[in-house]
């Protein structure tokens, strides 16, 4: 009796949500590290006399590494496991972030951002796999929304934190050192807390039984030896639905994340004024994450098929992002914040569904691989868009960029609705009916 009481004291209630909290924090730190450069961009452009096209090269360096890293990191995590995979990559990108403080010009900034992009690539395939390992289907949308919201929080917090560090130390170097160091604290907590449900020393039996009952192959994750190859997965229309959905909408998000400060400055709004509204689109996206994840989970609990619940939010997101075109016709910082805010709310609702679908559709050993492939496609699209954004904004304006950015999500919506369906010829060994 005493042993049972002691055992219960050593366990954590609802352990899966503690895991989700760590995934959320990882994404927060991931975005603080990458947004440090974007927030400092006006100062760095002035110090080094960069054009928008020059700044785009630094972003592209990050994106190229991130594109390569998403597929390779996804494959790596499917092979060595979520715990070790995310441990290695967080250590990698924390060191890369700190090392950026030694940059002295365009080439060195490009080099350090390349290494940062390679390390940060693992966050999304790794977090998606963790959700598949730790959450039943009815909660996955909400769990993905939680970790995905970390990007919005990180992007919203970074301007205040980085500008304060810049003014406190009188130089940009310490901003990279301090923000990069936060990853080491996260790593300690991750190594302590993350194990698979079937052998976790701090999980309660009721939670373990619930997870194994909901998803029978979770109990076999560590013993499965066969891994589905890229070529097999790329033959599936569902894989392409996930890939194209993310490849088309993520560049719009990264346009906001990477260029919003510069866009506000181009509208005659200085950085200090911009801080009053900069955070609004990111908080709106955070709310959109929970709206999309929470509503889809609610619909499933009330009897909707998984695929219909996910697609309902895809339609809302694809159509909702069309309002972004309106930003081209105003210079009011608060109207801009409202337009970008609603567009990002809609984006996040869509994005959570695309991030959740791999864990819905594919067997556990393929989840991170498919997620990684979609991330690679998204980064390739973002690289191409970043190059065009730098060129078009230097030679014309941001107006054509905003109009195109409002149309592309509609195409993404059509791709997801068309390609992700319960086809009659589904192979249950590769993809599930949902």
Summarize the structure.
79% of the residues lie in helices and 0% in strands.
Q: Secondary-structure map with pairings?
A:
Layout: H1 2-9, H2 15-48, H3 52-80, H4 82-99, H5 106-120, H6 123-134, H7 137-169, H8 173-193, H9 205-214, H10 230-234, H11 237-266, H12 271-278, H13 280-301, H14 306-320, H15 333-361, H16 364-395, H17 399-419
Helix pairs in contact: 2-4, 2-6, 2-7, 2-8, 2-11, 3-4, 3-5, 3-6, 3-16, 4-5, 4-6, 4-8, 6-7, 6-15, 6-16, 7-8, 7-13, 7-15, 11-15, 11-16, 11-17, 13-14, 13-15, 14-15, 14-17, 15-16
Describe this structure in words.
This protein has 434 residues and is an all-alpha fold. It is 79% helix and 0% strand. Helix 2 runs parallel beside helix 4 (82-99) and helix 3 (52-80) packs parallel to helix 6 (123-134). The longest helix is centred in the first third of the chain and has 34 residues, at 15-48.
Low-confidence regions: 217-225
| CATH H-tier superfamily | MFS general substrate transporter like domains
Helical content stands at: over 70%
Q: How many domains, as an integer?
A: 1
Q: Which structural class do you get from the secondary structure elements? A: mainly alpha
What is the number of strand segments? 0
Q: What fold name goes in the CATH topology slot?
A: Growth Hormone, Chain: A
- Global Rg: 21 Å
Number of helices: 17
**Helix and strand sequence:** HHHHHHHHHHHHHHHHH
Q: Supply the CATH class.
A: Mainly Alpha
CATH architecture descriptor name: Up-down Bundle
Distance between the termini: 43 Å
Q: Name the shape in a single word.
A: globular
Overall average pLDDT: 84
Q: Tell me the strand percentage band.
A: under 5%
The main β sheet shows up as: none
């Amino acid at each position: 009796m005493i042993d049972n009481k002691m055992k219960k004291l050593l366990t954590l209630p609802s352990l899966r949500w503690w895991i989700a909290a760590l995934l959320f924090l990882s994404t927060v730190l991931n975005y603080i590290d990458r947004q440090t450069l974007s927030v400092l961009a006006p100062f760095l452009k002035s110090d080094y006399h960069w054009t928008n096209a020059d700044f785009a090269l630094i972003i592209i360096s990050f994106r190229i590494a991130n594109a390569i890293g998403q597929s390779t990191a996804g494959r790596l995590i499917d092979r060595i496991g979520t715990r070790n995979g995310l441990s290695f990559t967080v250590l990698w990108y924390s060191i890369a972030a700190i090392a950026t403080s030694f940059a002295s010009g365009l080439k060195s900034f490009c080099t350090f951002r390349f290494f940062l992009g390679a390390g940060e690539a693992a966050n999304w395939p790794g977090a998606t796999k963790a959700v598949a390992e730790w959450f039943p289907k009815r909660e996955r949308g909400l769990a993905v929304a939680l970790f995905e919201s970390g990007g919005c929080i990180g992007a919203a917090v970074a301007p205040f934190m980085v500008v304060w560090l810049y003014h406190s130390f009188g130089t940009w170097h310490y901003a990279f050192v301090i923000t990069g160091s936060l990853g080491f604290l996260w790593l300690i907590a991750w190594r302590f807390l993350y194990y698979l449900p079937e052998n976790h020393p701090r999980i309660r039996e009721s939670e373990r039984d619930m997870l194994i009952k909901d998803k029978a192959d979770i109990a076999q994750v560590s013993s499965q030896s066969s891994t589905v190859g890229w070529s097999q997965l790329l033959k599936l229309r569902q894989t392409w639905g996930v890939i194209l959905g993310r490849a088309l909408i993520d560049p719009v998000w990264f346009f906001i994340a990477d260029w919003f400060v510069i866009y506000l400055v181009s509208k005659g709004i200085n950085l200090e004024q911009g801080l009053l509204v900069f955070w609004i689109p990111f908080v709106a996206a955070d709310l959109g994450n929970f709206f999309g994840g929470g509503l889809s989970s609610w619909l499933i609990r009330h009897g909707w098929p998984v695929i219909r619940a996910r697609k309902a939010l895809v339609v809302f997101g694809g159509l909702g992002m069309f309002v972004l075109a309106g930003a081209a016709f105003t210079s009011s910082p608060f109207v801009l914040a409202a337009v970008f805010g609603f567009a990002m709310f809609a984006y996040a609702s869509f994005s959570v569904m695309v991030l959740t679908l791999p864990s819905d559709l594919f067997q556990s050993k393929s989840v991170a691989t498919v997620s990684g492939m979609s991330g690679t496609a998204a980064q390739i699209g973002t690289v191409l868009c970043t190059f065009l954004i730098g060129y078009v904004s230097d030679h014309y304006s941001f107006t054509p960029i905003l109009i195109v950015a409002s149309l592309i999500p509609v195409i993404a919506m059509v791709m997801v609705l068309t390609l992700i369906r319960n086809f009659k010829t589904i192979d249950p060994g590769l993809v599930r009916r949902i």
